[in-house]
Amino acid sequence: MKVAFYTPLKPPDHPVPSGDRQLSRALLQALQAGGHDAVIASRYRSFDGRGDPVRQARLAETGERLAQRLIARFRRADQRPDAWFTYHLHHKAPDWLGPAVCRAFAIPYLVAEASVAASQHDGAWAHGYAASVAAIRAADAILFLNPHDVAGVRAVRGEVAADQPLPPFLDLDAFVAAAAPAPPPRPPGRVRLISVAMMRDGGKLASYRVLAAALARIASPDWELLLIGDGPARGNVEAAFAGIGGGRVRFAGAMSGGEVAAQLLASDLFVWPAVDEAFGMVFIEAQACGLPVVGGNAGGVAGVVDDGRSGLLVEPGNVAAFAAATARLMDDAALRARMGKAAIAYVRSRHGLASASARIDSVLRQVAAGRNPGRAPGARAPLQ
Fold first, then answer.
1. Would you identify the CATH topology of the domain 2-169+352-371?
2. Which of 17-31, 42-56, 324-338 has the lowest mean pLDDT?
3. What is the pTM of this model?
4. How far apart are the C-alpha atoms of 331 and 247, rounded to whole Å?
5. 3.40.47.10, 3.20.20.140, 3.40.50.10070, 3.40.50.2000: which CATH number matches 172-350?
C-alpha cells in the first residue's frame, strides 16, 4: 500500500535527536519493511509547547490550509495514498492534516501513540486537546506504544477491536552492528556505568539530579560513569555531579548512534532515573547491547524493561531506592551477567523490527479491508 506518514510533533528527518525522532524513523522503517510504500506526507509541526491559545489557533488555520493543498495534490491518482499513518498525537501536537485527507478519500486513518490529558479539556491547550480528541475518535485503529495511554484513549473513543498494543522497537541488529571501534579499556575491576540522554530542563535535568544524588551515596570507589548527551542544561547537569570527585564522572557530549552502541557494549550497567519519561528508547538500546539496567518506573518504562530479570526498576525520583538498586548490581557481577543475557533475549523477543513490522502490517490490512470489503488491500478506490 501507499502510506502517507506524518509526525505532527517532529518529522523523522528533524535535525535535533530525540527518542521521539528515533521512534518515528523506526515506524517508517517498519512500514517499508512490511512492503509498503511509506513516504513523509508533510513536515508541518503543529507543536505548541507554551499553552498559547493564539498560537494554537494560528497552527490550526495553517494546518487546515495545508490539508486542502494535500487533498488537491492527492487527487492525482499517482499521488493519492491508500492509508494515512500518524505518529504521536496529543494536545500539544494535534493532527490537522490526516483526518481531513482521510475523509476526502475515504481511506483508513491509523495512529501510533495517542494520549489524552483530560485536564486540558478546558486548560491552556484546550484548542489542541479538542483537535487531538477528534482525531483519536476518527482513527480506524490506534497502536498503543505506552500502556499508560490506554485508559485515557478509551475514555474518549471506547474499546475498538482494531486498537492494539505495539511495544516500542528498533532495528536491533543494525544498531548493534553499527558500533564504532571499541573505546579504550578501563582499570581492571572497575564497574563502568553509562547513561545516555539529552541535557535539557524538565524531566531530563531532574533525572540527572536524581542520578547524581544516588551515586553520591555509593561509597565504593570502584566505579566510573560515562554520560553521553548534550544540550542547553549541560551546565546544570555538570553542577549536579560536581560533588563526586576522583574523576569518576566523564562527560562525553553528543555521539552518533554507532558511537553510542560502542560505549554501551563496553560498559557494565545502564542507569537512568527516567523522571517523566514516556518509556525511554535508550533502555531498549542498552539491553540490546547486553546491559542490565536500573531505571525509574515512570510512564511506560515497565513496558520496555523486564523488572527483576533484565534490570531493576524503582519508584521514580526515589534517590535512596535508586542508589540501593545501583549498588546491588555494581556489587554482584554474576547478577549483572545473568540480567545482561536476559536483557538481550527480552528485547529481541518483544522490541525488534520484524515483530513490529508484522503487527503494523496486520492492523493496516485489517482496517483497509474493513473500509473496502471485497477489495484487495492496496487497490485504488474511486476518486471522491
1. Rossmann fold (3.40.50)
2. 17-31
3. 0.83
4. 20
5. 3.40.50.2000
